[in-house]
Automatic annotation (TrEMBL):
Identification of the protein by name: Amino acid/amide ABC transporter ATP-binding protein 2 (HAAT family)
Stated family: Belongs to the ABC transporter superfamily.
UniProt KW keywords: Amino-acid transport, ATP-binding, Cell membrane, Membrane, Nucleotide-binding, Transport
Entry's Gene Ontology molecular function annotations: ATP binding; ATP hydrolysis activity; branched-chain amino acid transmembrane transporter activity
Keyword ATP-binding: yes
Span of domain ABC transporter: 8-241
Highest taxon of source: Bacteria
């Protein structure tokens, strides 16, 4: 079923990394305009799934459709060119460039700071004060959590159709996690479709419309976040923890 209600659809996706068979037939549907949480234990295959969507690994079997279009065999720049933004687990910022330069590179429509969308920039400064504070500092000198804010700021400096973010709350202090939740909540309200990998259950519960849980290279549960949050026994069996 290729539904227009789903912006992104993976069907039976297998991924091999060298000799290792990592994904074993991933089925995943990301509804348009909603936030989908991808959960699962360490090593379940979450990052590999995101990398396969972005063409950083090639699916060896199965299909990936975006907006009804088959993107399974496209290369990463072509996939990014479809207005899909990806924040990898290691954040993908340029350490030697200033925070400003990092955002400028991500703002494809601007060639200098004055051309960046000023209202959007003010919104980012409110969400992530560190971005403004360290504007003219090399991004590599920032703390892990501050780098995480810069990485998310980079992908929201322009409107996107799909945001894919690998563990945005990783290493963040509780107060900043709340800013991050606020940021994604506002992005949700702007209508953008979001796929988040998350280990922080508080974060997942606050933001998720839908949830998919992976284990051993497969999606073993998919449904609404509210239903999973309400079902302690299911959480225990899927994640070995309670929300
Ligand atoms: N480059 C690689 N070479 C070989 N095996 C890999 C590689 N990258 C990942 N794997 C393996 O693939 C499996 C899935 O890894 P993946 O990074 O997708 O898990 P994850 O769900 O993102 O875990 P985490 O929560 O720890 O980030 C793991 O067993 C991992 O060891
Ligand atoms: Mg991972």
């Amino acid at each position: 079923m290729s539904s227009t209600a789903n912006l992104l659809e993976l069907k039976g996706v297998h991924t091999h990394i060298g000799a290792y068979h990592i994904l074993h037939g991933v089925n995943l549907a990301i509804p348009k305009g909603q936030l989908t949480m991808l959960l699962g234990r360490n090593g379940a295959g979450k990052t590999t799934t995101l990398r396969t969507i972005m063409g950083l690994w090639q699916a060896s079997q199965g299909s990936i459709h975006f907006n009804g279009r088959d993107i399974t065999r496209l290369h990463t720049p072509q996939i990014a060119g479809l207005n899909i933004a990806y924040v990898p687990e290691n954040m993908g910022i340029f350490a030697d460039l200033t925070v400003k330069e990092n955002l400028l590179l991500a703002a494809r429509k601007a060639s200098n700071a004055a051309q960046m969308d000023a209202a959007r920039l003010q919104w980012i400064f409110r969400l992530f004060p560190a971005v403004e504070k360290f504007w003219n500092h090399p991004a590599g000198k920032l703390s892990g959590g501050q780098k995480q804010m810069v990485a998310v700021a980079r992908v929201i400096i322009e409107p996107r159709d799909l945001l894919i973010v690998d563990e945005p709350s990783k290493g963040l202090a509780p107060a900043i996690i709340n800013n991050m939740i606020e940021a994604f909540d506002q992005l949700k309200k702007s209508g953008v479709t979001i796929l988040l990998v998350e280990q922080n259950i508080h974060f997942a519960k606050r933001l998720g419309d839908n949830v998919a849980v992976m284990d051993n290279g497969r999606v073993v549960h998919a449904g609404s976040m509210a239903a999973l949050a309400a079902d302690e026994a299911l959480q225990q069996s899927l994640l070995g923890l309670s929300l």
